[in-house]
């Protein structure tokens, strides 16, 4: 009898040793992919917040701005400041110090038939580092970009707009993230003020 019990417990131990690593990998994959979906949702919310700020006339600002610091100093928050603060609320993003969100373009698109229906079209892009990369599914770095559109409520200051699409850093490295393609007719792009370091 004791011999049979020892045999069964040994068999259960071997089965557990074979199945447990597979179950743990599956669980880790589900958690990692869930955190990636959470990151995409956070970037989408940041794009919503940013396009809302642009639609009420807030200036673009610079990468790395903080709306909290701007408000504490008595200044109006910038689009970048609000986008950055929105992303900072998600502690699961696993951002590195060099990762800052990029507004790959923010444009005022004119409605030729009704100027009161101009819209802001904006894309926010971010480099995301999954906690555990999954070969073939989730590489060690993933570029997340989300686009959002909203009607203009307050016009941008005229010196904050240009008819040509911004170039140079950080826009050059986001050329593959501009989906949909930035409009080319009846459009003005929000510009960064001088002195941006990124």
UniProtKB/TrEMBL annotation:
It holds the Pfam family TadE. The chain crosses the membrane at residues 12-36. Residues 157-198 are annotated as: Disordered. Keywords: Membrane, Transmembrane, Transmembrane helix. Residues 10-52 form the TadE-like domain. It comes from the Bacteria. Residues 157-167, 186-198 have a biased composition (Polar residues). This is TadE-like domain-containing protein.
